[in-house]
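Structure tokens please, single chain.
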Amino acid sequence: MITIPETVEVIVKKSLFLEEALSLGIVNLSALARQIKPDVEKGVMKEVQEGAVIMALKRLSFKIRKKQLKLDVFKGVPDLMLRSNLFEITFLNSDSLISKQKLLLEQLKSQKNYFMTVNQGIFETTIIASNALKNQFFETFKGEREIARFDNLSSITVHLPKDNPFIPGIYSFILRALAWEGISVIEVVSTCNEFTIILMDRDADSAFSIIKRLFRP
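Here you go.
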């Protein structure tokens, strides 16, 4: 049978913002306990005392703070790169799509100062590229089934520390800050030591400032 602490943890983790607020110690636990008490009772399938919910929240707050990401993995502000004039398109996967990707890359060999990244999933492939490649791009991929398209995009690339694959929560640390400010992320792309966020042009300047502030001493 699921316990009160287990139920409380499930409820809290459904809300990114609530978990963050608990980690900062800025939540009135008594008020929160009263609010989530009906959901806790549904989870454990019996009546519970408000005090038991408060105690579960206190223990969870301590647990979250203990696991909080340590910012000293970054030696100051990491390298940040802002790009604009991008577009994104998603195609249904096909045998011809793969061959057309190869053809496009061959055509771009002599070109410089452009951005393009390809993310191939199980059923679909997303390509993000500079607007300067649009005409060439759509001519090459003519006939492919388009699933989605976004224009007026920008990207922010964060250079991560070399040991980042072993640091829990390093991506959520950045994405959570953007979510707090109501900034939507269209796409994320990563390599071993680079994390790139794709977002609308209108949000680019604000997002860049938010990310930069994260790493100030």
